[in-house]
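From the pipeline queue, job 12 of 40. The input is one protein chain; the requested action is below.

Action: predict structure.
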Amino acid sequence: MVRLSSVIALSALTLAASANAGILLESQLPTNTNNAVFVIDGITVTASSAPRNFARKTINGFTGVGVAGGNVDAEIDSNESITFTFSSAVNINSLSIAFLYADGNFNDVGNESAHIFGDANKQVLAVTSINTGTWSGPGTLTNDSASSNAGGGAWTVSGTDIFGGAVTSVTLRPGNQGPNATFGDYSFRSISFTAVPAPGAGALAGLGLLAAGRRARRAK
C-alpha cells in the first residue's frame, strides 16, 4: 500500500517538474518589424522594440539584437528599448546581453552599464573591467566574452529569480539615456523564464490525490 504522505510528496514534485519553463533567443527575433509574438511552453511572449525595428549584428563572434538606427545601429541606446511581455507571471532565470564594454574600448567613454527593468523594478548590470562587472539584483553575473576591442562584451545573469520576484514584463534600456548618450549601449542575446504556478494549485493537486488515496483504500 502506498502511504498517503508519499503520494502528497510525489504530487509536490510532479507539480514543480511540470512548471512551464522556456527560453527566447536573439535568433528568433525578426528584423523587419518592431513586434513579434511567441508561444513558449504555454506562455505567450510579446517582444517589442522602440522606437524602430529590431536589428541584428555580430562582433567578434557574438551576435545580439538591438534597435535599428540611433547612435549605434543594432544596439539599445539613447531613448531606445526592447520589452518582453509575458501572458502570465514568470520568474526570470537568466538574461544574456552583448556589446557592453569597459572604458576605452570601441571608443566608449567610461565603463558601460545596462538598465534592466522587471516590471517597475530596475536592476543595473555595470561593467567594472574587461572581465568583471556587477549586477544589482539576485543571481550570479558571468562574463561570457571580454569587454574589450577583441571580445564580444557578453554577459549573463543567472539564478532562480534574478529580479527577486515574479514579473510580467522585462524591459532593456541603455545605461545612459537621452539624445547625447555616449555609452551604455548593448544588445539582447537570450532570456529564460519559469512560469509561476497559480495560487492554490499545489493544494488542489494534493487534495485530489488525497481523495484518490481514500478511494483506493475503500476499494481494497
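Job complete. The radius of gyration is 21 Å.
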